[in-house]
Amino acid sequence: MEVAFILEKLILVVIIFVITLVIAMYSTLAERKIAGFMQDRYGPDRAGIFGLLQPLCDGGKFFFKEEIIPAGAHKTLFVIGPVIAIITACISSAVIPWGQNLTIGDQVITLQVADVNIGVLYIFGVIALGVYGIMLGGWASNNKFSLMGAIRAASQSISYEIPMGLSLIALLMVTGNLSIGDIVANQSGFNWNIWVQPLGFLIFIVCAFAECNRVPFDLPECETELVGGYHTEYSSMKLGLYMFSEYINMFVSSALMAALYFGGYNFPFMYDLGLSENWITIIGTLVFFLKIFGFIFFFMWIRWTLPRFRYDQLMNLGWKMLIPLAIANIVLTGIITIVVDTYFK
Amino acid sequence: MSIFYFVAFLSIFFALMTIFTKNPVHSVLYLVITFFTFTVHYILLNAQFLAVVNFIVYMGAIMVLFLFVLMLLNLNKDTEPMKSTIVKIMGTVAGMCLLVTFLGAFRVIEVNNEAITPHANIGLVKNLGQVLFKDFLLPFELSSILLLTAMVGAVLLAKKDTNKA
């Protein structure tokens, strides 16, 4: 039993890891294809059909590029920076439920690596840790532009964690649960949390953009002011790891938004079609990935639509708009919950 | 129990490294690792919620701010103010006094083994919330008022400059 359990989880971990890396790889291609589509050009189309081999070529290029560590850099921390970035990006997917139970013979397999009863907080902790990768890399480079990027990343991540947490508190008041597995299970059918928490979702998605350092909040790597931001001095695979961790973060936060607000693996009329349990699980997982791809597309859509914020605008938005809005959302949610509980039940 | 001793060793080791490294940024990083070992201690004590809150608040927020300030100041060995001998002697004496106080305090405490193995589910959010909001409501509210006061004070201090200009 013990061995079978460990083996099952190990296989699940490997599968999720591979899927995460493949999706991150092809997100780089999708990003350029979508950019091409929006700017009325082709995007990469030389390697393979539709440029499908482009990510492999890029990966190969990263491996064969010369590895440069600047003479003035702090060697250990310079290497540890990208390592922390990629590790924190990868471990955050552990608590996301990818589907319901799959029954093979008499073995019931849960498509979730760890159903921790504090899953939401776990994700939060890992996100909070992610900024260390950027900060250490930027500081260890011993370059003014990198340092500016690192400092921006730190203050941005701290500022946007607060409204993100507050918007989640309102969600937790509705669901009454901290486990992501239970939160998704409670949204069965079409009872998605987005219908009860639209304002919370709006705050959450803005904060997710800021935490992933995506345009319009990519101030830490703002090319027009800071050369390359925190990764100015990085080359070869270390730069590749930073890029990769950005795309993995995007994938995981898309999965999180789909799970918390858009029902995860639930889809409308899932129990009315007369399908067997296993088919519901498989279709549910596919639907979940469809939702995730939708969010990833949204991330890219925004990138090629909106210009970058100015730094003071970013701080004003975070502290003077989102935090009061999130607190108002909590108060509103509390009042509505009490009114509904006393008069409509 | 052996896990506890290993983690305790790591805590003390990294705490000492925090003190003994010359570079302030390294010092903060060792402190981050020390806090991480504290998180492991909380998990060993069945206090999952406390563990993850310690992780988020101390490692994720406060230490990032520490690092932020140190990077902004960019302290080096050259800029570090030379402490005079009298300050060093005073520091040593004060530290020794603290040690003696601690030793005296710990000598009086009886080691109670029953307290070490608490109710297994006490660390879960639900139980913790019920304890906080039923049994310890007044201290909990008082500490929240304290935090609010500190926040108002911090905002007031930060606003002072804009009035002058």
Automatic annotation (TrEMBL), chain A:
Transmembrane segments: 6-29, 77-99, 119-141, 162-180, 192-210, 247-267, 279-302, 322-344
Keyword Cell membrane: yes
GO molecular function, one term: oxidoreductase activity, acting on NAD(P)H, quinone or similar compound as acceptor
GO biological process: aerobic respiration
EC number: 7.1.1.-
GO CC, any one term: plasma membrane
Database matches in InterPro entries: NADH_UbQ_OxRdtase_su1/FPO, NADH_UbQ_OxRdtase_su1_CS
Membrane topology listed for this record: Multi-pass membrane protein
One Pfam family linked to the record: NADHdh
Enzyme type, top EC level: translocase
The entry's keywords: Cell membrane, Membrane, NAD, Quinone, Translocase, Transmembrane, Transmembrane helix, Ubiquinone
Location in or out of the cell: Cell membrane; Membrane
Catalytic activity: a quinone + NADH + 5 H(+)(in) = a quinol + NAD(+) + 4 H(+)(out)
UniProt-listed PANTHER family: NADH DEHYDROGENASE SUBUNIT 1 (PTHR11432), NADH-UBIQUINONE OXIDOREDUCTASE CHAIN 1 (PTHR11432:SF3)
Assembly information from the UniProt record: NDH-1 is composed of 14 different subunits. Subunits NuoA, H, J, K, L, M, N constitute the membrane sector of the complex.
Family as reported in the entry's similarity comment: Belongs to the complex I subunit 1 family.
Function of the molecule: NDH-1 shuttles electrons from NADH, via FMN and iron-sulfur (Fe-S) centers, to quinones in the respiratory chain. The immediate electron acceptor for the enzyme in this species is believed to be ubiquinone. Couples the redox reaction to proton translocation (for every two electrons transferred, four hydrogen ions are translocated across the cytoplasmic membrane), and thus conserves the redox energy in a proton gradient. This subunit may bind ubiquinone.
Protein name per UniProt: NADH-quinone oxidoreductase subunit H
Lineage: Bacteria, Pseudomonadati, Bacteroidota, Sphingobacteriia, Sphingobacteriales
Automatic annotation (TrEMBL), chain B:
InterPro entries: NADH_UbQ/plastoQ_OxRdtase_su6, Nuo/plastoQ_OxRdtase_6_NuoJ
Membrane topology recorded in Swiss-Prot or TrEMBL: Multi-pass membrane protein
Transmembrane segments: 6-21, 28-45, 51-73, 85-109, 136-158
Main location: membrane
Subcellular location, record wording: Cell membrane
Enzyme class: translocase
GO molecular function per UniProt: NADH dehydrogenase (ubiquinone) activity; quinone binding
A Pfam family hit: Oxidored_q3
Catalysis performed (reactions): a quinone + NADH + 5 H(+)(in) = a quinol + NAD(+) + 4 H(+)(out)
GO cellular component, one term: plasma membrane
Keywords assigned by UniProt, alphabetized: Cell membrane, Membrane, NAD, Quinone, Transmembrane, Transmembrane helix
EC id: 7.1.1.-
Role this protein plays: NDH-1 shuttles electrons from NADH, via FMN and iron-sulfur (Fe-S) centers, to quinones in the respiratory chain. Couples the redox reaction to proton translocation (for every two electrons transferred, four hydrogen ions are translocated across the cytoplasmic membrane), and thus conserves the redox energy in a proton gradient.
Family membership: Belongs to the complex I subunit 6 family.
Name assigned to this protein: NADH-quinone oxidoreductase subunit J
UniProt organism field: Sphingobacterium hungaricum
